[in-house]
Amino acid sequence: MRLTRLGMLLSLIGVTMLAVLGGLPSLAAAQRSGGQGSGGQAQLIPLYDSGNPDDWTEACAQANGSGDGSWIVADIGEGGGPGDATAPVWAKVIDHCYSYGRASVIGYVWTGYGEGGQANIAGIESQINAWYSFYPGAIAGIFFDGVSDDIPGTTASNRNFYRTLASYVHTREGDNDEVVFNFGANPGSDWMLNGSDAGNSDIVVTFEGSYDTPGENPYISWTQAAWEASYPANDFAALIYHAPDQIATPQPASACGSLARQHIGYVYVGTSYDQLPPYFDTLLTGAWQGNC
């Protein structure tokens, strides 16, 4: 996985402190201090709440994950990605997030399920450019939503379309930035992981849906594709919403009990994407211990 804004920050801090003070823990130990426990999971947190400082502080201060840390997805335009200009409230919460050294921020971009094929690439690339220009030095990658194997209604493959977008992000920032492909379901094959490094996705969201709501792609009826077991767990993420804290199916324990047995390195369990769930602390504890 590529060195992120957080990884570079930890590297600089580690080198500087060792040079000045000597005898301090290694960089790996410094990463573990804000990272996941043995066998634990990191988080991929969709936080689309208009820059609510309380939620952002809680997520950034408590997120845990090994190495590069966890990821928080910003969607300033509420489905429109970066919006039309820099939003001061968002700039403030994003910059503040890095002060905790636990999570990096990536920008949301809707891809329209690849409709129109490569004709959409220029428009999507303009949104990518906007993220980096509106929030310079603060965006550590792009979360591509609406990814699919084929152009809907056709048998035409989307592989080259999305590999082009991944390469655009990876080469833009010196091959450092994260690319997340949100399929929301199991892809038909591993094409997004078996190409060139620049054209690959770093994380693939293989499930996104409600916990148990009928008609909303319920998690309780989802199983992983067999091919996914050939790749590391940190290549995959699951996003579960509409998982309320209730007696019948207490959350996040019910969802985490299943996720712990599945090959998922990045997890999120919540009620919606515009606020953190009331059990966020419990979710992080379970992820740290590998119980989520």
What does this structure look like?
By secondary structure, the protein is α/β, with parallel strands linked by helices. It has one domain (5-288): TIM Barrel, CATH 3.20.20. The protein is 30% helix and 16% strand. The chain has helices at residues 5-20, 27-33, 53-62, 88-97, 121-134, 159-172, 253-259, 280-288, and strands spanning 42-46, 70-74, 103-110, 141-145, 178-182, 203-210, 236-241, 266-269. It has an 8-stranded parallel beta barrel, surrounded by 5 helices. Helix 3 packs parallel to helix 4 and helix 5 (121-134) runs parallel beside helix 6. The chain is globular and about 50 Å long. The model is unreliable at 8-38 (pLDDT under 50).
Gist?
The chain is an alpha/beta fold. The chain is 30% helix and 16% strand.
List keywords for this structure.
16% strand; 8 helices; 292 residues; single chain; 8-stranded parallel β-barrel; globular; TIM Barrel; alpha/beta
Q: Class in CATH?
A: Alpha Beta
The share of residues in helices is 25-40%
Give the CA-based shape: globular
CATH architecture: Alpha-Beta Barrel
Question: Can you tell me the CATH topology?
Answer: TIM Barrel
Strand order of the largest sheet: 1-2-3-4-5-6-7-8
